[in-house]
Amino acid sequence: MNNKYFRKAKEKIGDPRILSLIAAKRAKQLALGAKPMVRIDEDEHLDIALYEIAEGLLGYNDGIVEDAADAFDELIMKSVEAEAKALEDKAEIETVEISEEIISTEENTEE
């Protein structure tokens, strides 16, 4: 377990028992195939869970665990939207490049 991530997560969830439970639950979700909500160079599921908590993506408020599913769904939507935008941009660039090639070919043919 990365102590730096643990300390940062403890700033978000002060009770170590609750922090442990939330981190363990999220680590289990990750182990079962859930996608991380953060990009991090760690392979340990617990470290990823602690980092997600430290980043405020998972939390605990007045006895209610703030479910990762909502944050995860929102993150997925943002990711999908960003990917769609990138694909649109790439398509526009390819269209412009193809158009420029056609124009260039037409100009060379006319000469």
Walk me through the structure.
The chain is built from four helices and two strands; from the N terminus they run αααββα. It is mainly alpha-helical and 111 residues long. It folds into two domains: 1-66, RNA polymerase subunit, RPB6/omega (Eukaryotic RPB6 RNA polymerase subunit), CATH 3.90.940; 69-111. A two-stranded antiparallel ribbon has the order 1-2. A hairpin with a 2-residue loop joins strand 1 and strand 2.
Break the fold down into its secondary structure elements and pairings.
Elements: H1 3-12, H2 16-31, H3 45-54, E1 59-61, E2 64-66, H4 68-110
Antiparallel strand pairs: 1-2
User: What proportion strand?
Assistant: 5-15%
At the fold tier of CATH, the topology name of the largest domain is Eukaryotic RPB6 RNA polymerase subunit
Structural class: mainly alpha
Distance between the amino and carboxyl termini? 69 Å
Q: Any idea what the shape is?
A: rod-shaped
Order of H and E elements: HHHEEH
Rg result: 23 Å
**Percent helix:** over 70%
Low-confidence stretches: none
Instruction: Spell out the CATH superfamily of the largest domain.
Output: RNA polymerase subunit, RPB6/omega
CATH first level of the largest domain:
Alpha Beta
Q: How many helical stretches?
A: 4
Let me know the average pLDDT: 76
Oligomeric state of shown chains: single chain
Number of strands: 2
How many discrete domains?
Answer: 2
Specify the CATH architecture of the largest domain. Answer: Alpha-Beta Complex
Order of strands, main sheet, comes to: 1-2
Largest sheet: 2 strands, antiparallel
